Amino acid sequence: MSPRMKDDVTQLHSAVTVIMRALKIAEKGLQVAHRELNFVPADIQTLRFLATHPACKLSDLAHHLGVVPTTASSIIDRLVDRGLVSRERPESNRRSVSLDLTAAGKDAFSRLDAEEKATMQLMLDALSKEERPAFVRAMSQIAAHVSTDGDT
User: Fold this and answer.
1) For residue range 11-44, what is the model confidence (pLDDT) as tens digits?
2) Long-range contacts, stretch 66-74, CB < 8 angstroms, 24+ apart
3) Whose C-alpha in 5, 33, 56, 95 is 20 to 30 A from the C-alpha of 44?
4) What is the pLDDT averaged over residues 125-148?
5) DSSP helix/strand/coil, 56
């Protein structure tokens, strides 16, 4: 690795560490996510996945979260008990179970998503309007490269 590349890696590591810490701290302050709904990160990731993958299977969710199916099932049980997720058995395959957000789940996710986007806006505010498109493109490219399941 060239000295310049080492410097780039070191700088990137430092910047990503600071951003991750800032996002973690900001996440705890999210009114809807933590104070109102008392979500843990797995709940938020589950709602996000179900919002973009309606009628998915538990195994799909477990794969996305990187957990075993029993852990995913526990998360779903918690969200079903709270009225945010529904389990349905499709007529075409009564052994299968599809997962969907309820109306309350869609509302909760919509509010969470708005909060998170407000945090992203704060990050973009650190850049000029001219710098933003290149930053967003680069971040999207990195996300696509490191994604394990095609979801970015």
Assistant:
1) 888 988 888 887 777 766 666 666 777 888 899 9
2) 66/148, 67/42, 72/46
3) 95
4) 91
5) strand
What end-to-end distance do the CA atoms of the chain give, in Å? Answer: 29
Give the 3-state secondary structure of 109-142.
HHHHHHHHHHHHHHHHCCCCCCCHHHHHHHHHHH
Tokens standing for residue 49: 């996945």
Confidence band, pLDDT 50/70/90 cuts, at residue 150: low
The two tokens of residue 20 are: 């991750």
What are the structure tokens assigned to 102, written together? 């309820």
45-77 pLDDT per residue, tens: 999 999 999 999 999 999 999 999 999 999 999
Q: How far apart are CA 27 and CA 34, in angstroms?
A: 8
| Buried/exposed code over 24-45 (b: 16+ C-beta within 10 A; e: otherwise) | eeebeebebbbeebebeebbbb
Q: How far is C-alpha 57 from the geometric centre of its chain's CA atoms?
A: 18
